[in-house]
Every structure is written in structure tokens, then in C-alpha cells.
Amino acid sequence: MSLAELRRALARSGLNLALPLPAADYDRSVSADWQTARVAPEVRSILVVGNGGRGFWDCFRRSPEASLRRDPLDRYTERVLREVAASQDPPARIALYTDHRGGTYLPMVALARRAGFGSPGRVGVLIHPEYGPWLALRGLLYLGDNLPYAEPAPFDPCTGCPAPCETACRGGVVSTAGVDTDGCFRTKLLDSTCRSRCDARSACVVAPEHAYSPDQMAYHQRVRWRPSTLRHATRVLVKGLVER
Ligand code: B12
Ligand code: SF4
Ligand code: SF4
After folding, report:
1. Distance separating alpha carbons of residues 211 and 217, to the nearest angstrom
2. Is position 152 within any domain?
3. End of a domain among 143, 172, 190?
């Protein structure tokens, strides 16, 4: 399947961002457990898959997974990626952004940057030239073909920007140094508004027309309570008290 055909197949389900990375570039970015020699020795290219704007959410809302209680969006993503992977000859392997090997997640942001998804903005998340901060990284396809790769063009949206993201942030955690992720998480625990929307992200001047819908935003902003989240929450709350 050509890159254009792969993109069309993914985009039909809302995964409208897919950029290839040569296997050697991928191997330079990941830990030992994630090397292609261990994950899929025969691969030549890795397709980094994500979504920008609202389309993916709309496709998901119409899917059978939307009524599931546990991780419905991730389960929808997994089905779509598996279906596209199975249509390859030979079938491709997949990895999801939530997968870990040897206790390590994939460095999805580093891989996406290298593939050309954009640059990290002051507001923390990657800023994409067309979709601004309104994108998410969903997973990878490991493919046997050599897909065409182009070095990403330089993109620096924050230099010279008046940075309305900084003043809009409810926790005061966005600065020229980027976002203080522990401070942001602490604010989310203490301020319920940040558990349903991110005013800093919404203030970004790049591509506001692609902003997530309120229900899409609320889904992504919620805190998912798991044992690891509890440990993380305790750590950032204690750190906040010590820093006072
Ligand atoms: C674990 C995780 C978290 C944990 C981090 C806990 C911890 N410190 O270990 C928690 C639950 C707190 C979290 C929160 C968020 N996350 Co997160 N997270 C991940 C995940 C699944 C793994 C990160 C990792 O360990 N990578 C491997 C190591 C080697 O790479 P790393 O870059 O050094 O990892 C560190 C950073 O990624 C950082 N981190 C995690 N999330 C985010 C988000 C932002 C904006 C920043 C600046 C840093 C950051 O924590 C990691 C460990 O220290 C990734 C997906 C992935 N596989 O990368 C998403 C991911 C990085 N998260 C993402 C997002 C959007 C968020 C949130 C904004 C979600 C939200 N709407 O609230 C928040 C913001 C962070 C904050 N303010 O606290 C996106 C970023 C996408 C983008 N467009 O740039 C990712 C890629 C998921 C996705 N589907 O797109 N996250
Ligand atoms: S969620 Fe709240 S604290 Fe975190 S960056 Fe957005 S506005 Fe700031
Ligand atoms: S508002 Fe400006 S400074 Fe803030 S993240 Fe967007 S482009 Fe960067």
C-alpha cells in the first residue's frame, strides 16, 4: 500500500495525521526495549499516527466503542490501527501511545517531532503548522516498505508571539521556559475548571478554528484515576507544599 493509500485508510476513521520515519531514525530515539530489532525486525519505516482537529472525535462518537466504560477512545484507536495493519501485506505491527515495554513508554513526542508533527509550544503540547495545539498522538505502524521521508521544515510559532497562553493559564504555569507540568497537574487537582478545559491551550493563536469541541476537550482534560495517577498526585501536591 502506498503512503497516500495508507493515509486515506486512516483518515476515513479520523486519524488524519500520518508521517513516516525511517527505521534508523526511530531506533535512535527509542530505548533498548523498543528497538526495531526487538519489536519488528523486518521493518523499514515507522508511520507515526495521530489526529488533528475535531474529525477524529466525531468518528469516535459514531463508533460502537463510544458506549464502552473503560478507555473508549483508546479502544477505538486500537481497532482502527489493527484493521489498517491487517490490510498490509505482510500485516504490519502496531504500538499504541499507552503501550510500554520494560516499564518505558514510547517517546511519542520525540518521534512525532522527528516525523514533522510540529514543535513544542510554550503551552507544552506540540504545535502543528495546520492544527496548532489541537492534535494528539495515537500510535505507530511498523511497515516493511521504505516510505518517503522528508526532513521537517523549521517551525517556531512562539518566538515573537505575545503569548496569550501565558496570561490565560489558570495556574500561572506557562512561561518562556515552557509549561511546568507538575504545576499544571497540581492545578488540575485543585481547580475543577482545569479538569474540563485548558484555557492556556485555548488561547493559543495558532489554528483556533481547529479547537476541540467542549466535550472532546473535557474528555482529554479529565484526570484518570489509576494507582500511578495517585502516586503522581501525591508527589506534586507534596512538592507544592515544600516549594511554598
Ligand atoms: C505518562 C503520560 C502522562 C502522565 C505523566 C506522569 C509522569 N510524569 O510520568 C500524566 C498523566 C501526568 C500526563 C499528563 C498530560 N499529558 Co501526557 N502522556 C503520558 C504518556 C502516556 C507517556 C509519557 C512518557 O513517559 N513517555 C516516554 C518518555 C521517555 O518520554 P518523555 O517525553 O521524557 O516523557 C515525559 C513527558 O512526556 C511528560 N509528559 C507527559 N505528558 C505530557 C504532556 C505535556 C504537554 C508535556 C509538556 C509533558 C508531558 O511526562 C513524561 C515522564 O516524565 C505520553 C504518550 C507517550 N507514549 O509519549 C502522553 C503525552 C505525552 N501526554 C500528552 C498530553 C496532551 C497530556 C496532557 C496535556 C493531557 C491533558 N489534556 O491533561 C497532560 C499535561 C501534562 C501535565 N500538565 O501534567 C500528549 C502530548 C501530545 C502533544 N500534542 O504534544 C501525549 C503524547 C499523549 C497523546 N495521546 O498525544 N501524561
Ligand atoms: S490545564 Fe490549567 S494549569 Fe494546566 S496549562 Fe491549562 S490552564 Fe494552565
Ligand atoms: S499562544 Fe503563542 S507563545 Fe503561546 S503556545 Fe501559542 S504560539 Fe506559542
Report:
1. 9
2. no
3. 143
Q: Which domain holds residue 121?
A: 3-143
CA–CA separation, 205 and 164 (whole Å): 8
Assess if residue 154 is contained within a domain: no
Q: pLDDT (tens digit, 9 = 90+) per residue, 95-122?
A: 999 999 998 999 999 999 999 999 999 9
Gap from CA of 128 to ligand 1 centroid (Å)? 17
The minimum-distance atom of ligand 1 relative to the CA of 126 is 84
Q: Are both 112 and 9 inside the same structural domain? A: yes
Q: Answer yes or no: are the C-beta atoms of 221 and 196 closer than 8 Å.
A: yes
Q: In whole angstroms, what is the distance from residue 119 CA to residue 125 CA?
A: 8
Q: Is the pTM of this model over 0.90?
A: yes
**pLDDT, tens digit (0-9, with 9 covering 90-100), for 11-36:** 999 999 999 999 999 999 999 999 99
